[in-house]
Amino acid sequence: MKNSRLSRRVLLGTTAVTLLALPVSLASANADALLGKSRHSVVAFGAYNGAVDGVRAPFDGGIGNNSMAVSPDEKIAVATNSQVGRLVVLDLRSGRRIAEIKGHVTPRSILFSPDGKDFLVSDSTLGVVDRISRKTFRVTERLPLGAGVFGTAQTRDGGRLYANNQAADTLTVVDLANGRPEHVVTGFSEPRQGVQLSPAGDKLYVTNFDGGRDSRITVLDTRPDRPEETPVKLKEITGFNQVRGLSISRDGTRLYAANSGDHTVSIVDTGSGDTLAKVPVGQSPYGAALSPDETVLLSGNLKGNSLTAVEPGSGDVIGTVTGVKGPRQAISFSADSRTAWVLNEDLTVAQVDVRALKVTRTLG
């Protein structure tokens, strides 16, 4: 398995270009007016474009995931599924799909910049992280990080990006202000979507899927007062079974991680690395999303077509949300913790009343 993964690393998307234009389909007159009804295509410039002889041939298409980011002003959401190769933009107020952005192959992770003016999208087949303008939906910057680039996390000020590479078993640290990779940290094993900074920004938690059997989480020192230094590995936390999404408590003392292999969510003491509890949830949990007020943790149960609500302190299950389809890691909360948005497998979004634990409407 490892040798086959190593052989695929030769497919690297290493072309850096700016002001790329992705194909955009628009679902509103206002959006049409904004973009002048133009249609564009990404120019490959010799890079692998995800097709062989005109047939779709993604680099790591056997790995499926979804991602969604809500803008800081909570007006729009950008969502994707790696199996469909496109992004959709939803108006969270009207519930309408306002745009569709084509041109990616296996999009993996989406992050909004802190000011909400653009968002970052990683694509493991193209081997890039794209910065896309919220105003025009055009790619304004392309960072070539290599085939297999997957999950991403950024510092609170948006100055630094951490990008997993599941094929190369690495983590790349990027200076976003200058678009320059600063460090490449080695020694991981299939780091996929799960990568999370502690709220204080001093530690980074990286999941190692490792075929699912020996999943673990690596903890790195990322203290803000030493950004020029390569992140140092502090410890590894074990005891997971096909580890997926994760969250860190506001004080940094608790880690919550979904285990799709045994249908549980782990609650871990980050200081000792001890597992305090394994909470049974729905079938094949991928998400472990902690609300901003830390009163509820939602697991996205892929095969159970449900969310399980867990009380983070005690680990007690407090309810189940139905009416969702194929939920994974893509779960976002409103700032007041009253609403959760959950991405369905068809790229619609379920809006959930967190207190009532009910889907109130489906967007898109």
Please, could you describe this protein's structure?
Helix content is 4%, strand content 44%. With 364 residues, it is mainly β. The strands form eight sheets. The chain has a five-stranded antiparallel beta sheet. A hairpin with a 5-residue loop joins strand 4 and strand 5 (76-81). The chain is globular. Residues 1-19 and 28-43 have low confidence and may be disordered.
Blueprint of the fold:
Elements: H1 2-7, E1 24-26, H2 29-35, E2 51-52, E3 55-56, E4 66-70, E5 76-81, E6 86-91, E7 97-102, E8 107-112, E9 118-123, E10 128-133, E11 139-144, E12 149-154, E13 160-165, E14 170-175, E15 180-185, E16 195-197, E17 203-208, E18 216-221, E19 232-237, E20 243-248, E21 254-259, E22 264-269, E23 275-280, E24 289-290, E25 297-301, E26 306-310, E27 317-321, E28 331-333, E29 339-343, E30 349-353, E31 358-363
Antiparallel strand pairs: 1-7, 2-3, 4-5, 5-6, 6-7, 8-9, 9-10, 10-11, 12-13, 13-14, 14-15, 16-17, 17-18, 18-19, 20-21, 21-22, 22-23, 24-25, 25-26, 26-27, 28-29, 29-30, 30-31
Total beta strands: 31
Q: Total helix count?
A: 2
Structural class by secondary-structure content: mainly beta
Q: Give the integer mean of the pLDDT values.
A: 90
Strand content: 35-45%
Low-confidence segments, ≥5 residues, pLDDT <50? 1-19, 28-43
In angstroms, what is the radius of gyration? 19 Å
Widest sheet: strand order? 1-7-6-5-4
Helical coverage, percent range:
under 10%
Largest sheet: 5 strands, antiparallel
Oligomer: single chain
Mass-distribution shape: globular
- Could you give the distance between the termini? 39 Å
Domain YNCE-like beta-propeller: 253-343
Pfam family, one: YNCE
Protein name: YncE family protein
Organism: Streptomyces pactum
